Amino acid sequence: MSSHLRRKCTPECVFAPYFPPDQPAKFASVHLVFGASNVAKLLNEIPAAQRDDAVNSLAYEAEARLNDSGLRLRRLHHQAPAPPQAAPIGPPPRPAGARQVHRPSRPASFIRFCRPK
Question: What InterPro entries does the annotation carry (predicted)?
Answer without folding.
Answer: LOB (IPR004883)
